[in-house]
Structures are given as structure tokens and as C-alpha cells.
Amino acid sequence: MEGVKYIVGVADMKISNVPGDVIVTHALGSCLGITIHDPVAQVGGLLHVMMPYSSIDRAKAEANPWMFVDTGLSKFFLEAYAAGAVKGRLQVKVAGGANVQSNGDDRFAIGTRNHIVLRKMFLQNNILIAAEDVGGTAARTLCLEIGSGRVLLGSRGVEREF
Asked: Which of 2, 34, 133, 143 is the most buried (most CB within 10 A)?
């Protein structure tokens, strides 16, 4: 079945229930990419968040909740449930959270903080992570195939199933 290839930008997300669709996000540096997929309902999505807490700018969070882990993550899951996904069947994968500063200076630790907030929210909501590739210094590309649930991870010119 032919579908659409969706590109998810920074502070954006996409949910699909069309088996032929593919969802991709590029340039995951300190940002996190989160994929969710329900293999029975064939519903999946990809969220690209850039900052841990919306409290730094409530107006931006209201205008675009996908920018922040604490506001974007819950809305992302609710959108997937509305499309037919069931929490207990979701396969969750996470990538990003790197320190991509050319000088190695990571004084704000955005990637690490993003990951910590994400893990806390998952713990509070009994959500398990099936796979994750976080930290380091390399940017990543994440791709979700809705029909198969396959997630591909690309970094430094190498792509692998994740």
C-alpha cells in the first residue's frame, strides 16, 4: 500500500494510521525523537521535542506544545489514542539527547535534561521504552514505517534497524 512520507520538523509531531505512511525526523542533536507504534491498530507517530520544561516560556508552550517534553509528550500519546492506539500495546523508541557542541561545552546539558524529564514522565505513567539510543555527540535521523512498525536510526552515514 502506497502512503505518504511525512517529515517532522523540530518541535513538531505526526500521527498516522495509514499502513503505507512513513514518518521521518532529521537532525536530532540535543532534541529527542520519540516513536510510538501499536502493531495491532497500525497506529504510530513521531514526536521531535527540543526542551525539557515548558515553564521557561508558557506562551511558546501554549502556541506549540510539541516544543517541550513536559507538554508535548502527553498530547502526543493522547493523539495516538484518539487515532486508535492502545497504551498496553505501544512500542516506544527514543533517540537523540546528544551534546553536539563543536567545542564539547555542554554547560546547559539540554539533551541530558530532555532525557531525564522523558524518563520521569514514562515512569510516572507506566510506559516502557523498547529501545533507546541517546547521548553521545552525534546527530541522528529517525524513521518510522507505520505498517510494519520498523524504526530506522541513522547517524554518521550509517542506518540500522532500531
From this structure: 34
